[in-house]
Write the C-alpha coordinates for this entry.
Amino acid sequence: TLPVVAIIGRPNVGKSTLFNRLVGKRLALVDDQPGVTRDRREGDAQLLGLEFRIIDTAGYEDEDAATLPGRMRAQTEAAVRDADVALFLVDARAGLTPLDEEIARWLRASETPVVLVANKAEGRAGEAGIIEAMALGMGEPIALSAEHGEGTADLFEALLPHV
Ligand code: GDP
Ligand code: MG
Protein backbone atom coordinates (compact mmCIF):
# COMPACT_ATOMS: atom_id res chain seq x y z
CA THR A 1 0.00 0.00 0.00
CA LEU A 2 1.08 3.56 -0.70
CA PRO A 3 2.25 5.95 2.00
CA VAL A 4 -0.33 8.60 2.91
CA VAL A 5 0.21 12.36 2.78
CA ALA A 6 -2.47 14.68 4.22
CA ILE A 7 -2.74 18.29 3.01
CA ILE A 8 -3.76 20.46 5.96
CA GLY A 9 -4.51 24.17 6.22
CA ARG A 10 -7.19 26.80 6.60
CA PRO A 11 -9.51 27.61 3.68
CA ASN A 12 -7.99 29.29 0.61
CA VAL A 13 -4.29 28.54 1.17
CA GLY A 14 -4.15 26.40 -1.98
CA LYS A 15 -4.72 22.85 -0.72
CA SER A 16 -6.91 21.78 -3.62
CA THR A 17 -4.62 23.44 -6.16
CA LEU A 18 -1.71 21.37 -4.80
CA PHE A 19 -3.86 18.23 -4.70
CA ASN A 20 -4.90 18.70 -8.33
CA ARG A 21 -1.32 19.30 -9.40
CA LEU A 22 -0.02 16.18 -7.67
CA VAL A 23 -2.89 13.92 -8.72
CA GLY A 24 -3.14 15.30 -12.24
CA LYS A 25 -5.54 13.36 -14.40
CA ARG A 26 -5.60 10.32 -12.16
CA LEU A 27 -9.14 10.03 -10.88
CA ALA A 28 -9.77 11.45 -7.43
CA LEU A 29 -12.12 9.38 -5.35
CA VAL A 30 -14.73 11.50 -3.66
CA ASP A 31 -16.29 10.00 -0.59
CA ASP A 32 -19.97 10.82 -0.35
CA GLN A 33 -20.45 9.78 3.26
CA PRO A 34 -21.62 12.36 5.76
CA GLY A 35 -19.39 14.01 8.35
CA VAL A 36 -15.66 14.46 8.13
CA THR A 37 -15.21 12.07 5.23
CA ARG A 38 -17.66 14.05 3.12
CA ASP A 39 -15.17 16.86 2.74
CA ARG A 40 -12.26 14.65 1.96
CA ARG A 41 -10.81 13.84 -1.44
CA GLU A 42 -8.20 11.18 -2.02
CA GLY A 43 -6.04 10.42 -5.00
CA ASP A 44 -2.83 8.74 -6.11
CA ALA A 45 -0.13 11.35 -6.40
CA GLN A 46 3.16 11.47 -8.25
CA LEU A 47 5.98 13.83 -7.46
CA LEU A 48 9.24 13.42 -9.39
CA GLY A 49 8.85 9.64 -9.27
CA LEU A 50 7.61 9.44 -5.67
CA GLU A 51 4.21 7.80 -5.43
CA PHE A 52 1.86 8.26 -2.53
CA ARG A 53 -1.78 8.51 -1.59
CA ILE A 54 -2.81 12.09 -0.99
CA ILE A 55 -5.72 13.46 1.04
CA ASP A 56 -7.18 16.90 0.42
CA THR A 57 -9.10 18.19 3.40
CA ALA A 58 -12.24 20.10 2.84
CA GLY A 59 -14.10 22.79 1.17
CA TYR A 60 -16.13 24.21 4.06
CA GLU A 61 -17.99 26.12 1.37
CA ASP A 62 -21.20 26.75 3.27
CA GLU A 63 -19.61 26.87 6.64
CA ASP A 64 -20.71 29.37 9.21
CA ALA A 65 -18.04 31.04 11.28
CA ALA A 66 -19.28 29.56 14.54
CA THR A 67 -18.97 25.93 13.50
CA LEU A 68 -15.94 26.15 11.18
CA PRO A 69 -13.13 25.69 13.74
CA GLY A 70 -14.74 22.63 15.31
CA ARG A 71 -15.39 20.94 12.01
CA MET A 72 -11.95 21.82 10.70
CA ARG A 73 -10.35 20.41 13.78
CA ALA A 74 -12.24 17.12 13.55
CA GLN A 75 -11.35 16.80 9.92
CA THR A 76 -7.73 17.81 10.33
CA GLU A 77 -7.22 15.38 13.18
CA ALA A 78 -8.91 12.52 11.32
CA ALA A 79 -6.77 13.08 8.22
CA VAL A 80 -3.53 13.45 10.18
CA ARG A 81 -4.19 10.34 12.25
CA ASP A 82 -4.22 8.20 9.10
CA ALA A 83 -1.27 9.92 7.46
CA ASP A 84 2.46 9.18 7.38
CA VAL A 85 3.16 12.89 7.04
CA ALA A 86 1.12 16.10 7.07
CA LEU A 87 1.76 18.92 4.60
CA PHE A 88 0.77 22.03 6.52
CA LEU A 89 0.04 24.81 4.03
CA VAL A 90 0.05 28.49 4.89
CA ASP A 91 -0.40 31.41 2.49
CA ALA A 92 2.86 33.31 1.95
CA ARG A 93 0.97 36.24 0.45
CA ALA A 94 -1.68 36.64 3.12
CA GLY A 95 0.65 36.03 6.07
CA LEU A 96 -0.22 34.08 9.20
CA THR A 97 -3.69 34.21 10.72
CA PRO A 98 -4.96 33.08 14.14
CA LEU A 99 -6.45 30.02 12.44
CA ASP A 100 -3.01 29.05 11.09
CA GLU A 101 -1.65 29.26 14.63
CA GLU A 102 -4.51 27.16 15.94
CA ILE A 103 -3.95 24.48 13.31
CA ALA A 104 -0.24 24.51 14.20
CA ARG A 105 -1.20 23.72 17.80
CA TRP A 106 -3.35 20.75 16.72
CA LEU A 107 -0.52 19.46 14.56
CA ARG A 108 2.07 19.81 17.32
CA ALA A 109 -0.16 17.71 19.57
CA SER A 110 -0.19 14.86 17.04
CA GLU A 111 2.58 12.38 16.48
CA THR A 112 2.48 12.64 12.72
CA PRO A 113 5.50 14.43 11.23
CA VAL A 114 4.69 17.82 9.71
CA VAL A 115 6.24 19.50 6.68
CA LEU A 116 5.51 23.24 6.72
CA VAL A 117 4.79 24.71 3.30
CA ALA A 118 4.51 28.43 2.45
CA ASN A 119 2.36 28.35 -0.68
CA LYS A 120 1.76 31.21 -3.15
CA ALA A 121 5.48 31.94 -2.76
CA GLU A 122 6.11 32.90 -6.38
CA GLY A 123 7.56 36.37 -6.90
CA ARG A 124 8.44 39.05 -4.38
CA ALA A 125 4.98 39.12 -2.81
CA GLY A 126 5.65 35.88 -0.97
CA GLU A 127 8.99 36.76 0.61
CA ALA A 128 7.72 38.30 3.86
CA GLY A 129 5.26 35.45 4.33
CA ILE A 130 7.97 32.82 4.01
CA ILE A 131 9.94 34.46 6.82
CA GLU A 132 6.80 35.02 8.90
CA ALA A 133 5.94 31.31 8.69
CA MET A 134 9.08 30.53 10.68
CA ALA A 135 7.26 31.97 13.71
CA LEU A 136 5.14 28.80 13.78
CA GLY A 137 8.13 27.00 15.25
CA MET A 138 7.99 24.22 12.68
CA GLY A 139 11.27 25.03 11.02
CA GLU A 140 11.96 26.68 7.72
CA PRO A 141 8.99 26.35 5.37
CA ILE A 142 9.20 24.90 1.89
CA ALA A 143 8.53 27.82 -0.46
CA LEU A 144 6.02 26.55 -2.99
CA SER A 145 3.79 27.79 -5.75
CA ALA A 146 1.16 25.14 -6.28
CA GLU A 147 -0.36 27.21 -9.04
CA HIS A 148 2.86 27.79 -10.98
CA GLY A 149 4.60 24.53 -10.14
CA GLU A 150 7.55 26.11 -8.32
CA GLY A 151 9.29 24.50 -5.34
CA THR A 152 8.55 20.96 -6.46
CA ALA A 153 12.11 19.72 -5.93
CA ASP A 154 12.20 21.12 -2.38
CA LEU A 155 8.84 19.51 -1.62
CA PHE A 156 10.18 16.20 -2.94
CA GLU A 157 13.22 16.41 -0.66
CA ALA A 158 11.12 17.26 2.38
CA LEU A 159 8.71 14.36 1.78
CA LEU A 160 11.36 11.78 0.94
CA PRO A 161 12.19 10.78 4.55
CA HIS A 162 8.50 10.20 5.33
CA VAL A 163 7.09 8.33 2.33
P1 GDP B 1 -8.00 25.59 -0.55
O1 GDP B 1 -9.24 26.25 -0.03
O2 GDP B 1 -6.94 25.57 0.48
O3 GDP B 1 -8.27 24.25 -1.17
O4 GDP B 1 -7.43 26.57 -1.70
P2 GDP B 1 -7.58 26.47 -3.29
O5 GDP B 1 -6.70 25.43 -3.87
O6 GDP B 1 -9.03 26.39 -3.62
O7 GDP B 1 -6.99 27.89 -3.74
C1 GDP B 1 -7.49 29.10 -3.24
C2 GDP B 1 -7.08 30.23 -4.17
O8 GDP B 1 -5.67 30.41 -4.13
C3 GDP B 1 -7.44 29.98 -5.62
O9 GDP B 1 -7.86 31.19 -6.20
C4 GDP B 1 -6.12 29.51 -6.23
O10 GDP B 1 -6.04 29.80 -7.61
C5 GDP B 1 -5.13 30.34 -5.45
N1 GDP B 1 -3.79 29.69 -5.37
C6 GDP B 1 -3.49 28.41 -5.11
N2 GDP B 1 -2.17 28.19 -5.19
C7 GDP B 1 -1.60 29.37 -5.50
C8 GDP B 1 -0.25 29.79 -5.73
O11 GDP B 1 0.72 29.02 -5.67
N3 GDP B 1 -0.06 31.12 -6.00
C9 GDP B 1 -1.09 32.01 -6.07
N4 GDP B 1 -0.80 33.28 -6.35
N5 GDP B 1 -2.38 31.64 -5.90
C10 GDP B 1 -2.63 30.34 -5.61
MG1 MG C 1 -10.02 23.11 -1.23
